[in-house]
UniProtKB/TrEMBL annotation:
<dbReference type="InterPro" id="IPR050706">
    <property type="entry name" value="Cyclic-di-GMP_PDE-like"/>
</dbReference>
<dbReference type="InterPro" id="IPR003018">
    <property type="entry name" value="GAF"/>
</dbReference>
<feature type="domain" description="EAL">
    <location>
        <begin position="163"/>
        <end position="311"/>
    </location>
</feature>
<dbReference type="Pfam" id="PF01590">
    <property type="entry name" value="GAF"/>
</dbReference>
<dbReference type="InterPro" id="IPR001633">
    <property type="entry name" value="EAL_dom"/>
</dbReference>
<dbReference type="InterPro" id="IPR035919">
    <property type="entry name" value="EAL_sf"/>
</dbReference>
<dbReference type="InterPro" id="IPR029016">
    <property type="entry name" value="GAF-like_dom_sf"/>
</dbReference>
<dbReference type="Pfam" id="PF00563">
    <property type="entry name" value="EAL"/>
</dbReference>
<protein>
    <submittedName>
        <fullName>EAL domain-containing protein</fullName>
    </submittedName>
</protein>
Length: 311
């Protein structure tokens, strides 16, 4: 078993879901006059409390309170397996629960619990309530409310799991780019009307994947999953690797988002080499004034410009 602080559930649920779970558990606990309600998740052979709700969390936060137990030694597992009923008014009167170590460890006098089933039949865990004293009035209570709340939670668990799987797929695709030739840089000539000659080249990222997805989609998804700087840095690194091949009298224009510039990711790459011929084209025009206010329109010899200034 392990000892820790109350788990907020945010490692398992999105923040918006966290608020709704708190309300659901509070409503359920008060409806049955219980001291604590929680979601128990089955994973890696353990039952872990991933969301705990009570009027007074002092006992739950104490160093003696255990949040994770071997799955086989919990009420949750035995309820899921049908060894225990959903409602136990007096744990000392039940021949199974009165002998279980967890009964004393969590001071369980009465208990409510129902499995949380996902749509494919998987048991995610259980929805449970604890009362520190026995409660004979629970004998007449209908567990259907518990089951209803468990179904709502199961729906949200699957919704969030699908989002996580989608985001993980995006992360995998983006991280694979660094090991493949799917991301290439194309260099578009920039013509000087004054000199009637090529004065520079704009580096443009192209993704050679099947099915084809445009660069804006790649960079948008990368930003959504926290890999925006990673993808931009990868593209800029590949663009800068071609700088020696560009004529000395030409500049190289590189696209960069304000976030990547302000985070220092872009500056770190450019400061590694002589970048006096590099112009950063800020991809979000509305943010340009912010960059000017931060006085980083010229840093270490490279310049920040917005598209109109490069024409």
């Amino acid at each position: 078993m392990s000892v820790g602080e109350v788990l907020s559930g945010h490692d398992y649920f999105d923040e918006e879901f966290g608020v709704s779970v708190s309300k659901l558990l509070g409503m359920l606990r008060r409806s049955f006059a219980m001291d604590m309600a929680f979601i128990g998740k089955f994973e890696n052979g353990s039952r872990t409390m991933v969301f705990v709700e009570s009027d007074n969390n002092i006992s739950a936060r104490s160093q003696s309170f255990c949040f994770s137990h071997p799955e086989s030694q919990t009420y949750c597992r035995k309820i899921a397996d049908g060894e225990l009923p959903s409602i136990i008014p007096d744990t000392q009167s039940n021949e199974i629960t009165r002998l279980m170590k967890v009964t004393d460890e969590l001071s369980i006098g009465a208990y409510l619990g129902v499995p949380i089933y996902l749509s494919d039949g998987e048991i995610y865990g259980t929805l449970c309530c604890i009362k520190y004293s026995s409660d004979p009035s629970l004998e007449t209570r209908d567990p259907s409310l518990l089951t209803f709340v468990a179904d709502v939670i199961a729906d949200r668990v699957e919704f969030h799991r699908n989002i996580q799987e989608h985001d993980n797929q995006i992360r995998d695709r983006i991280e694979r780019l660094s090991l493949s030739n799917e991301l290439t840089m194309h260099f578009q000539p920039i013509w000087s009307v004054t000199d009637s000659a090529i004065c520079g080249y704009e580096a443009l990222a192209r993704f050679n994947t099947e099915p084809y997805r445009s660069p804006d989609v790649w960079f948008k998804e990368a930003s959504q999953v926290g890999l925006g700087d990673f993808l931009e840095s990868l593209a800029i690194t590949r663009a800068l690797s071609q700088l020696p091949k560009i004529p000395e009298f030409c500049f190289l224009s590189i696209n960069a988002s304000p976030d990547a510039i302000l985070s220092g990711a872009v500056g770190e790459l450019l400061n590694r080499q002589d970048a006096h011929r590099v112009i950063l084209e800020v991809t979000t025009k509305a943010e340009f004034d912010v960059l000017k206010e931060l006085k980083i329109d010229k840093v270490q010899g490279y310049f920040i410009g917005k598209p109109a200034e490069l024409a």
